[in-house]
Design brief:
The chain is mainly α and 168 residues long. 62% of the residues lie in helices and 8% in strands. A hairpin with a 6-residue loop joins β2 and β3.
Length: 168
């Protein structure tokens, strides 16, 4: 993972805006709208919402680990051991209300932004991320925040495309 970050302040703003963008992307959708997908092999909007929040929540733990123990080893071997569709099934994405996930996303982002603003040298602290089938890689907190901001924004675009596809 390369360090792409140019503007930490801008990245933090993008990260902080993520929950609002997600909420706006699903505004006005009924349960039927949340259950729309491009086809049977793709996730529904509801699945995407839960996926964004769950991934963000897991990486939030990584941010806290880096702040508490710089260069701590951090990996998701347990998560990467199964395809994401299996996690979606095990974590009941299809049947869950999105509101608790949205509330967690909003609260978590407020919490992480506050923490990063208050913690000295937070942006440069690092984790040794244990990627599957690769050597451990040193990743900064700033890069994790940038990655999560981009992850949310990318999936918000997916939601908007689904809405456009179905005219909802």
């Amino acid at each position: 993972m390369t360090e792409l970050m140019v503007d930490p302040g801008g990245v933090l703003v993008r990260y902080a805006e993520g929950p609002g963008l997600l909420r706006a992307a699903i505004e006005g959708l009924t349960d039927a709208g949340l259950d729309m997908a491009p086809n049977a092999e793709n996730w529904t909007i509801r699945h995407i919402v839960h996926h964004i929040v769950d991934g963000d929540h897991l990486w939030g733990i990584g941010i806290k680990a880096a702040l508490g123990n710089c260069d701590a080893s951090f990996g998701f071997q347990w998560y990467w051991a199964m395809p994401q569709m299996q996690w979606a099934e095990r974590w009941a994405y299809a049947g869950r209300d999105v509101e608790p996930s949205l509330a967690l996303f909003e609260a978590s982002h407020r919490h992480i932004v506050s923490l990063l603003q208050a913690a000295p040298d937070a942006w440069e602290r690092t984790l040794l991320v244990q990627w599957p089938h690769r050597e451990p890689e040193r990743v900064t907190v700033g890069r994790i925040v940038e990655m999560q901001a981009g992850h949310a924004a990318g999936h918000v675009e997916d939601i908007l495309k689904i809405r456009q596809m179905f005219g909802i």
